[in-house]
Amino acid sequence: MAEIGMIGAGSWGMALAVLLHNNGHQVTIWSALKEEVALLIEKRENAEKLPGVVLDEEIGITADLEAAVSGKDILVLAVPSPFVRSTAANMKNYVADHQIIVNVAKGIEESTLMTLSQVIEDEIPQADVAVLSGPSHAEEVGRGIPTTIVVGAHFRKTAEYVQNAFMSPVFRVYTSPDVLGIELGAALKNVVALAAGIADGLGYGDNTKAALITRGISEIARLGTAMGGKAETFGGLSGIGDLIVTCASMHSRNRRAGILIGKGYTMEQAMKEVKMVVEGVYSAKAAMALAEKYGVDLPIIEQVNMVLFGGKAPGDAVNDLMLRDKKIENSDIPWE
Length: 336
Prior knowledge:
Elements: E1 3-7, H1 11-22, E2 26-30, H2 34-43, E3 60-62, H3 65-69, E4 74-77, H4 84-91, E5 100-103, H5 116-123, E6 128-133, H6 138-141, E7 147-153, H7 156-166, E8 171-176, H8 179-201, H9 206-226, H10 231-234, H11 237-248, H12 253-262, H13 267-274, H14 279-294, H15 299-309, H16 314-322
Parallel strand pairs: 1-2, 1-4, 2-3, 4-5, 5-6, 7-8
Antiparallel strand pairs: 6-7
């Protein structure tokens, strides 16, 4: 049994807390919101964020960050990406040397272009940071629906320790040393999922969705490998796997926000309607900055940025994607 601190009480944090508790671990959930702590202590459920998933009485709930962090075998950082740096900074003085922190948020910090594990390492250099990612909606994990995911870490022993903690009959965990590739796949797929949702909102069909997923993973892999990620990672769980589920499922807040934008909502109106942090909005600008830095062409992600921040009509963005210059699909395949 491990002592685990769940730093964040959103839907993903609560779903993972239930999973880890069912695996026999002692879990303490922390939230910065005192009203949220009071609600969870009283109701043992957040009916708005994760209806039907009840927290066992043995799962601790606290607003005391030191109590949630100190002495834990594993810390799971499950706050939305815009709050990762500030939360990590607040945790720093309570984190021991080589204490394991597993980041489960997905995004790129716009101001620094750092991945979230890099942000955590920047704020808490003494920590042993890992990442957990893959096609995994909280709504399904919290209900025990079979899910497969990957944990990335710099050291094999860290990845295997986290793998053993999370692995269960309904939650299969693979390991990988490609931390960078895992995080880039996780962050960039949210931007492509916005595009998929916009296409749905415009009334387009399965052909369009398949095109966005296929060409989207090509863009993600092109940038990811230019930055040092491994091509195999983008063909795996945190690449194409996560992209498929995020583009196809109504559990996806990025897809839902995209649908609203396709129907004429502004970005701000769509985010307000979804009522949760839409991670792709925060990663979209960072993705274009990285594309410029590494000299990589990202036509889908570029058009998403123009719709989100440039006032471009979604239908015009689709037309511009379809009418770009003719291309060869894969330039690495030789002609006869």
